[in-house]
From TrEMBL:
Leader sequence segment: 1-21
InterPro entries per record: DUF306_Meta_HslJ, HslJ-like_sf
Keywords, comma-separated and alphabetical: Signal
Residues of the DUF306 domain: 34-138
Signal recorded as keyword: yes
Source taxon at top rank: Bacteria
Protein name per Swiss-Prot or TrEMBL: META domain-containing protein
Length: 146
């Protein structure tokens, strides 16, 4: 008869070694839940958007926020599935702080008046496109993409 007790240290060692193996790191794609830099907005140049540091913050959905160069803008987003590559958004009224900043008010007014119309989104890697019913688009790039 074979004495299996002699093999016990070997099996113990192999068991411990296997338990110490690192599990593969799984990083969830953030989807919409990020801060987005506005790269295209109808009627504004990329330079103007960059100078205003135009941002759309969807990191705390269903609460959203934006910055268009002066005031903090806040809104609610409903009926959104943030991990889908495309879908629809239901954006609530936009509220803002009340500072006056010459040179930035046009962009903020455009955002406040027209942002709710953009009810469809498409994600492609680190790029986000918002579209309204007339085909107008806002293009954004993830702030953390690099």
């Amino acid at each position: 008869m074979t004495d299996y007790r002699a093999l016990l240290p070997l099996f113990t060692y192999l068991g411990l070694l296997g338990a110490c193996a690192a599990a593969p790191e799984q990083v969830a794609e953030p989807g919409l839940k990020r801060v987005w830099m506005v790269s295209e907005w109808p009627g504004f140049t990329r330079e103007a958007l960059t100078a205003a540091q135009a941002r759309l913050d969807l990191s705390a959905l269903p609460h959203g926020g934006a910055y268009m160069g002066c005031n903090r803008l806040m809104f609610q987003v409903a009926d959104v599935h943030p991990l889908r590559a495309s879908g629809s958004l239901n954006i609530g009224s936009v509220a803002a702080t009340r500072m006056h900043c010459p040179g930035h008010m046009d962009l903020e007014q455009a955002f406040s008046q027209h942002f709710r119309r953009f009810q469809h989104y498409r994600l492609s890697g680190h790029r986000l496109t918002l579209e309204d019913a007339e085909g107008n688009t806002i293009r954004l790039i993830a702030e953390d993409w690099d």
